[in-house]
Prior knowledge:
Blueprint: H1 3-25, H2 28-45, H3 52-71, H4 90-97, H5 101-112, H6 117-124, H7 128-146
Helix pairs in contact: 1-2, 1-3, 1-5, 2-3, 3-6, 4-7, 5-6, 5-7, 6-7
Amino acid sequence: MASESVERLYRDQGGRVWSAVFAYAGDRGVADDAVAEAFAQLLRRGDDVRDATAWVWTAAFRLAAGELKRRSSLSPNVPERAYEPEFADTRVLDAIRALPERQRAAVLLRYYADRPVTEVAEALGMRASTARVHLYRARNRLKELLGEEVAWI
Length: 153
């Protein structure tokens, strides 16, 4: 993949990927690192990547999950902001953050990133049927937390 294509993808999707990873991780440093590394890896892989958009979303979430595990015992370090979260309704963001980690990631990848369930499952290292269960439970929990107001679930 040419660097111009990666740059265009970064301009088009970088902010959305960052917002979703931030909503998932709740840590700006994790979001910054995961998104930057995902795009850097995409540049290195070049033409080996078939669907760059899907690959970047998957890589960013996997990197963030790994970083969260690594940082679990450390206090968060708040770097300068590269992006601002795109979520206008903080109630929705707070409700998403209240979900268990896998449900939170599944919801963000499926409904915010608009990825098919098979890609959600691949990104989270699970079967599609398991991803569907996480999505089902997450939707039910979000409806409990937010009422029927949430149209995107």
